[in-house]
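tl;dr need the bound structure. longer version: we got a ligand (PBG) that a collaborator sent over and nobodys looked at where it sits. i said id run it. heres the input, straight from their email, havent touched it
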Amino acid sequence: MTSTVSGPPLTVHIGSRKSQLALVQTHWVQEQLQKHFPDRRFEVHTMSTQGDIILDVALAKIGDKGLFTKELEVGMLQRETDLAVHSLKDLPTNLPEGLILGCITERENPADALVVHEKHQDKQLETLPEGAVIGTSSLRRLAQLRHHYPHLEFKDIRGNLNTRLAKLDEGQYDAIILAFAGLHRLGMADRIHQVIPPEISLHAVGQGALGIECRANDPAILELIKVLEHQETAQRCHAERAFLRRLEGGCQVPIGVNTQIQDNNLTLTGMVASLDGKRLLKEKVTGPATDAEQLGIQLAETLRQMGAQEILDEIFAQIQRS
Ligand SMILES: NCc1[nH]cc(CCC(=O)O)c1CC(=O)O
């Protein structure tokens, strides 16, 4: 065996959450890296994050950044692991000192999806009856659906995908909203009843893509994970993340996006809404895909001029009070 002096360690340690979805995603990354680098060993280390442990409090109220990522980050900073695989939408836009977002993988369909109770098999979002109870833990989904369907009721829902589906099937909800990507990756795409179009619900920043985080001063690991980067997804997600970073008020907020790239031009649509869905600001920007971050910042400033900051400040105060 040859020893590598400056190359990556022969065994690469990958940090992951323990949820079924996290493991499917991490094992995919492990498998891809193994294919590219057959001489190395890739080992997965699972960890529980606060987000996996605190299940009885609404996500919006916890509000803490990095709820699903912090323990994985500590692992890398303490050199127990070399990289961590995240659902990109759970990765805060500002990372701890010493860590970077080293790779963004090809995105699955980023849309939200409607899953209905069996008694509503013949219904769509627009035909669900008045008072039907929709389960979601996301302020973004809540605000946009309230805006378009004020006759529906909304109730918080927590837990992993299987728990949420079980609560729906038991009859605690008439329908729930989940990410298309999560259902698809877990082999449960057959539960998707309606893919919600962007005109109704703009998706979360980074939704459907994986983000691989590593130490900033570890070029060998960075070089390994870069082979999994998907350029178009990365450009879209860098625009989305720059938009969120520029707007964010320090809590989970109703901010949604959509991105498209055509002929090297990136169009970013962004939305900020009040919790009651009564005010909803939406605008878009187009420019060279290579200026992704600049486009995100520009759109954030435009929305702020339209009044987004007042909406976000109000929501932050509301969440603190409730
Ligand atoms: N916050 C939970 C979470 N983080 C990533 C996904 C789904 C997969 C993805 O968006 O990449 C989900 C579940 C959901 O929103 O339904």
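gonna send this back to them w/ a short note. Residues 1-106+209-229 form a domain with the D-Maltodextrin-Binding Protein; domain 2 fold (CATH 3.40.190.10).
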